[in-house]
Amino acid sequence: MQTRTLTSDLLLLLAAFFWGTTFVAQRLGMDHVGPMTYNALRFAVGAMTLLPVLLAFRTRNDADGLGQVAQPPPAVNLRHHRRYLVLGGGSLAGLALFGGASMQQIGLLYTTAGKASFITSLYVVLVPIAGLFLGQRCGLAVWAGALLAVAGLYLLTITQSLTIGRGDLFVLIGAFFWTAHVLLIGHLATRANPLHIAGIQFLACSALSLLAAVLFESITLAAVGAAALPILYAGIFSAGVAFTLQVVCQRTSPPAHAAIVMSLETVFAALAGYLILHERLAPRDLLGCTLMFAGLLVVQLPLLLGPKPRLPIPRETFR
């Protein structure tokens, strides 16, 4: 393995660590503020964290600040086209992000960080299946991975009385929003600057979360101050730092490496929940996590064994 690729994979591992441990920060933050208040502040911090990165890439001369982008038809004004993509696409991505983050945050009121991370990761399987409705074909590995993931999800969420926990259900609904978000980002990534898209979607998600918080929650400065550390951790490290690492590293890390390394987010979340929040998983839960993780890896097998794709794998990178 080339040194540059190894460095990229190690930095992606750091990003996965931040994404995974953010589940713990989300739980701790809600000891003081409501889920919508937490998300509003968290994504506002994420948007501000991106500002110095945007300024750094602004000096580049390539089309989108990070690489080649698809060009619009000659008759379309280039600047107007990109502004429309950034504002319109970023707002749509922000709406999907709001749905996923809201369901996840509410779910964390009732379930553990480890379980929430594994259920959220179901989007890795849902994305290629959703591609069927967009005219894309799924290979055998996707269906095998889906079966493993569903079996694991059953063990992780369904009780012996065939009921699903409230928190697990919210997080599961959120996984479908994350799926829509990944598909949107995958469509926009080669057509506009992904850092601009990220900034707009963070602002849109923050604004929607703030509106929900004003309508349904009580916000006090004392509570926000008490939750400041978890909010800053999630906003700076999970959004700003981890996303920037992914954007930069996936330019040199093979897609199969990136997908597998970033899926370790679920392992970090489970370990952090165990060490910091003293969460425990029953043997049934551990088996479910194992099956889900195996399903995630099986889905990536064609990327590891087949020809290298020209574009990076779309991934929900804004937890």
Number of strands: 0
Structural domain count: 1
H/E series = HHHHHHHHHHHHHH
Q: Ranges with pLDDT <50 over ≥5 residues?
A: 61-65, 309-318
Task: Describe, in short, the structure shown.
This protein is mainly α.
Report on this structure:
The chain is mainly alpha-helical. The chain has one domain. Helices cover 72% and strands 0% of the residues. Helix 1 packs across helix 12, helix 2 runs antiparallel to helix 8 and helix 5 packs across helix 7. The longest helix is centred in the first third of the chain and has 30 residues. The C terminus is likely disordered.
Notable features of this structure?
14 helices, globular, 319 residues, mainly alpha
How are the elements arranged and paired?
Elements lengths: L2 H27 L5 H23 L20 H30 L5 H8 L2 H8 L9 H18 L8 H23 L5 H23 L4 H6 L1 H22 L5 H8 L2 H12 L6 H17 L1 H5 L14
